[in-house]
Structures are given as structure tokens and as C-alpha cells.
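FAQ: What does the model actually see?

It sees only this:
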Amino acid sequence: MANVLVTGGGRGFGLALVSLLAALPESTISKIIVTTRGNPSENLRKIMEVAGKRIIHIECEVVNAASVKRAAAEIEEKLGGQGLDMLINNIGKMGVNPQGIRTMDADELIQEFNVNVAAAHRVTAALIPLLQLGKLKKIIMVSSSAGSIAWADRYTFSPAYAYKITKAAMNMLAVQYAIEYEKDGFTILTISPGWLKTDMGSEKADLDVDTGAKAVWDLANKADVSYNGKFYNIHVPGWEHNPGVNQYNGLEIPW
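And it is asked to produce this:
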């Protein structure tokens, strides 16, 4: 039985992931801890009503250090001496600048860095002690293949400059944690969930959000220490040789 925490679980990809976890037997997933900025969304409430006490909602504003600290203390209390087995850091903000990178305001870049990088650090740092008590010791950073420097030419069609820059930085954050906590038996990796049909991804995206959530969970579930410090693509059957921009083949993505 694993205790899993999902940040940003009120909508989009995070909500789909919570729904998937709630459908798994209690013998597989014991507690599902979900953080959102405020009260649970209507859709999250519906899942919580069916799942009962297995889902624990925690209010957490990830860009606020005091809020993260309070949330960590509440999570520790709710776990009642048990450890946290897996943290899925699903944190993301994306703005666009259709007129080119020069029009990207520096303050906008700083705001996205605060959400996509600094917030991921705040949450991870606050929850490391609980993860050290867990059996699995897994941290999944939800990244994006658009944050790959090696693949930058693939995504020139997207004017989401700050998003691409900050996801690249978050990848390095994950690597630094992976190096430091490898000796403690942690598995820390980044996963690109694919281009999903969410408010952020739009209806033009490749995959429905449930497909992305299942693929991320399958990868996170099977990942062992050999995955530590690496960046992975999801695997979606039939998409391995897609002629478009994205191929979902389950392989490592170059940094």
C-alpha cells in the first residue's frame, strides 16, 4: 500500500491523475493526498465523495513559503506516523508571447519561474522528511519535452518562451535532488506527460488527459533506482512513430 501526494490536483492533468489513483484498489494505494490552491473544485469533490477517506485534501499555495510549511505539517499529521511514498509535483504555469521572445516581460518570466521551479523546490524540500519515512521514496517532477534544450528546434512553433525556459530549469532542479538523495535510496525523475487536451494544452493537443495520466502513472509505478536523475517520455501505444512533432515511445528525452 502506497501513500501518494499529487500537487495541483483540482483540475486538468492533476485531477485526471487523482481520479485514476482513486479507482485503484486500496491494497495498491492507501492514501491519496491532493493539494490545491483553495477549496476543492467541484470535480475533485465528486471524486472525494466516492473515494471517501482515502483522499485527503490539503489547501496549499505553492508560491507561498508559509503556506507550504503549514501544508507539510498538516500532511504529516494526516499520515499519522506513516511515511509518504510518492510525491508527484504537478506544478505548471504557461504564458505566451506571440510577438516574439523580445516582448516577454522579465517580470512574467520571474513569475513563471516562481511557479514552475521555485514552487517545485519549496514542496520537495518540505516533504523530503516524510518521503524518507516512506517505502518507495519516489519523486516525480511533471515536466515537458518543450523544456529539452536538445529538442528546442522542435517547438519553435510555440511562443511559450517562459514556460520552456523554466521547465528546463526545473529539469536541472530534479537532477540536483536526484544526485543528493541517491544515497538514501530515492528515485527522482522528470516525466513529460505529453501534449494533453487541457486548459493549458488546448483542444489542438495530441492526447486526452486520461491517456496522459495513465501513461505517467504506469511509468512512475515501474520506475526504480535505475531511473534516478533521468528525463522520460510517456509511452502511448500507436504513437511511437507518429509523423508529427511528438512521439510517445517511453524513451529518455535528451536534456
